[in-house]
Write a structure and sequence with these properties.
By secondary structure, the chain is of the alpha+beta class. The protein has a domain at 14-76: Transcription factor, MADS-box (SRF-like). It has five helices and five strands. The strands form two sheets. The chain has a three-stranded antiparallel beta sheet, covered by helices on one side. A two-stranded antiparallel sheet has the order 1-2. A hairpin with a 2-residue loop joins strand 4 and strand 5. The chain is elongated and about 100 Å long. Residues 84-176 form the K-box domain. It is found in: Nucleus. Keywords: Coiled coil, DNA-binding, Nucleus, Transcription, Transcription regulation.
């Protein structure tokens, strides 16, 4: 039974289109190989898929460049010159873009602005003001983040300090941890060779300690109490 004639039009379904492309490409390569062997001809076949993938067949003992060179000699068309001209044109555009960018950089440094008219100077001034605003906002954000981080670390350090003070002096009747209901004083001194400020609560039965806070710290350290700075 003869196969029905296939209507030649674009296959809409992507899967079917890919299957058909793969089968027909292999068929073309097979025919090109047969033509090269049977007729002792040089064949170069290039196929570019819809996805941009390149498939190539070249006769044995030859290259695509050799085939193209023979084509140029036969037709009198210089394909490489056209490609070279396109490359030169693209290079020219890239150089102009590079010069423009370098000019903009110099102008933002305050160089090369003597030849600018009022409108150009005004536009440059506005661009730089906008750039400065962005930099300033970023600077403030970084500063704010640093301050928040420092405050968090300070809060954690105070919590650790209160915990250490509670652990070290909770059993002594004359001293206690600073809280909302006591009398407060601070002393300066050294803990483990590190200078710092120490907070203590002074009990009512030791009123003279208000006049000599440093003696409190000396007494604490000489008794091997854990008094930490914050």
């Amino acid at each position: 039974m003869a196969r029905g004639k296939i209507q030649i039009k674009r296959i809409e379904k992507a899967t079917n289109r890919q299957v058909t492309y793969s089968k027909r490409r292999k068929g073309l390569f097979k025919k090109a190989d047969e033509l090269s062997i049977l007729c002792d001809s040089k064949v170069s076949l290039l196929i570019l898929s819809s996805t941009g993938k390149l498939h190539e067949y070249v006769s044995p003992s030859t290259t695509t460049k050799q085939v193209i060179d023979q084509y140029q000699r036969t037709t009198g068309i210089d394909l490489w010159s056209a490609q070279y001209e396109r490359m030169q044109e693209n290079l020219k555009k890239l150089k102009e873009k590079n010069r423009s960018l370098r000019r903009q950089i110099r102008q933002r440094r305050g160089e090369g602005v003597d030849n600018l008219d009022f409108g150009e100077l005004l536009a440059l001034d506005q661009e730089m003001e906008a750039a400065v605003q962005l930099v300033r906002e970023r600077k403030y954000k970084v500063m704010s983040n640093q301050i928040d981080t420092t405050n968090k670390k300070l809060k954690q350090a105070k919590q650790i300090n209160r915990a250490l003070l509670t652990d070290g002096i909770k059993d002594d009747p004359d001293y206690g941890l600073v809280d909302a209901g006591g009398d407060y004083d601070s002393v300066t001194g050294y803990s483990n060779g590190i200078p710092g400020v120490f907070a203590l609560r002074l009990q009512p039965n030791q009123p003279n300690l208000h006049n000599d806070a440093e003696s409190v710290l000396t007494s604490c350290l000489s008794s091997n109490w854990r008094v930490e700075k914050f």
